[in-house]
């Protein structure tokens, strides 16, 4: 069953309420760690735990004056905590809070995206098994090549998305690092044990080394992974767009009751979902480039990366969440036309089996060049005369010198060409179907 898509789940990750809640968790956790070291009185920690809170509207109000989001946050929390608030943010810098909370948000977003990918994989597998033996012409350069099956196309997509899930899991691990190491990362005013405690409470690992920030090569890898997944989505979308073309008509997007394809042409049924996905993948790639531009900062840090991440963080994760869900629905409801696939496969009148004849001739002792010349001559003759390839071959004296009609017929057999399809499926999906 396809989970119902709701944009709110991912949006909640990036809501101000969630962000400030994580900031508060970091600040309180730091107080707890410092209290264990005797740096924060137990009574003060008790007050912080009891009273610490915030109001988003109030933070926004203060930020308009101080022009600094973390200071505005700390001001509002301090208003609630009272005198014990002087132990908040002790020895810390803004990036300790910002980078650590950003990591937690990215990990949360990854959890949703992993669910999305697993749902897509389940649908791809189901449709692949359904069409495991549905023959379709394979195309290279957009031209008829050799037969394959529609199930193998879907299995190919499945394998790629499985790799994308592995990539996403690695990318999540790469960004799941926090830092509470102070202004330039030297722990000048608090010990590393505080960082270790805070990161553990947040479900992160401490960065082995940082300056004022977590190094942005981690984030560049993360956003590049999202872009790569988007490119795989575009690959599938482009294929569906081609298969839906009037001249091909082998598969098409579902067209629901009341849907309209064109404001001017009532007959149109356009692949709008696939075109939408192809376009959105460009945004993900653009955001990945922006993440790469964030890697090089001045000295121990500047804040040129910050404004970028406030956009690409929520945008890329929310966008990919939407794309994966839309593609899953599209694949689940894709309309497939096996008869059209069969008709298109037969349009070449058997020419798509030419390699089988070529290899038979080579096995009989001809050079590859000699075999190629004989088969190409016969193929072009069949093409020009619009006759079946087999008919031309069994009347070609030069070829009959080496091949019997039965051998020619066997080489033009679809079942023979696709005899290893089940083995490919076992390699992709395992022994159990």
What can you see in these coordinates?
With 433 residues, this protein is mainly alpha-helical. The chain has 3 domains: 7-87, Fumarase C, Chain B, domain 1 (Orthogonal Bundle); 94-258 and 265-343, Fumarase C, Chain A, domain 2; 351-411, Ribonucleotide Reductase Protein R1, domain 1, CATH 1.10.40. Helix content is 65%, strand content 5%. It is built from 19 helices and 6 strands. It has helices at 7-14, 16-36, 42-51, 56-66, 69-81, 94-130, 150-175, 192-201, 217-244, 272-293, 304-332, 338-346, 354-363, 368-385, 389-393, 397-400, 405-411, 414-417, 421-429, and strands spanning 135-140, 143-149, 177-178, 205-206, 251-252, 335-336. A two-stranded antiparallel sheet has the order 1-2. Strands 3-4 form a two-stranded parallel ribbon. A hairpin with a 2-residue loop joins strand 1 and strand 2. Helix 1 (7-14) runs antiparallel to helix 6, helix 2 (16-36) packs across helix 8 and helix 6 (94-130) packs antiparallel against helix 7 (150-175). The chain is elongated, with a radius of gyration of 30 Å. The chain starts with 6 loop residues before the first helix and ends with a helix. The mean pLDDT is 93.
